Here is the input.
Amino acid sequence: MSSHGRVVAITGATGLLGPVVARAFAARGARVALLARDRDELDQVAAALRGGRDRHLVVPADLSSAEQAVAAAATVRERLGRADVLLHLVGTFRGGAGLAQTASSDWQLLFEVNFWTAVRTLAAFLPQLVDGDRGRIVAVSTPIAQAPSSTNAAYA
Here is the structure.
């Protein structure tokens, strides 16, 4: 799939992988919507992209909120056009304890960040992605989910 002219929404855009893939898509001519919670970090990522803030969009949002996910998707559509690609990179890690020893707060955090942000973001962007013949969803996860150990069950 060619990236030229496509709208690519990247969640978790300020994490370790976000800026790397944003640069790759921007270099191939995509218009990139950068989604994460911190506006200052998003501005730094956008400034480093080919075309900068004139071509790409910064969308500060807490995607653990269904309302903010919907608002973010609407902003992308209004400002850049229909999203062709949703690249979901949001995630966090807690590990080191067995299933019974993992704190309830860690379970809650991991489900909220690693599961519910994916569900809410996919639900928010899905109408755009199916409104044409080019929609793609890429959700990046950990290989630990396929082979959990006794000390990272909650994370996996």
The chain has a mean pLDDT of 91. DSSP finds five helices and five strands in the chain. The two ends are 31 Å apart (CA to CA). The longest strand covers residues 31-36.
